[in-house]
User: What shape does this take?
Amino acid sequence: MKKSVSRIALTLSLLGLGIVGATGVSTTTAHAAKLSAVPKNLRSTWGMMGEEDYMVIFTKNSFSFSTIRRSKNKNWVLEKSREPYVSLKLGKKVKANKTFTISKNKYGYAYVHYRLKRESSSDKFYFKVKGKKLKWSDYANGKEAEEYTKLPTMASRTAFFGKY
Assistant: This one.
């Protein structure tokens, strides 16, 4: 009788551990997707020329994006007075106009999730670095990605965007 009671107790405890372990794994996997810092390969200034010239800046804990202008010092900087200016800090939750979260997906893209007060829904953009190019896409698999060039110094910005 003692053996059967102890076997039942052992079986129930192992089942309990199995259930806790299974839920613990899935919870851990879900939380592991969010990153606590911007990946090092994304941290830089990136530029794109087109109808309008844009710049994206990633630091360890921030994300900024806007069109560009020449400063008084003749440097290329983000234009803060025009749309679509975005400057956000990395957070654990998305807060409108304040924080963003960053995660990785199965395609190797880091995705930035943020929300702006002027928009009713939140946005997710997908980024991947290949060499000195940053791919920015609205799609998780990188389809229809725009390419930005790495511009780590003021001199490289001037060379890329010109001196006008």
About this structure: Residues 2-32 form the longest helix (31 residues). The longest strand covers residues 62-70.
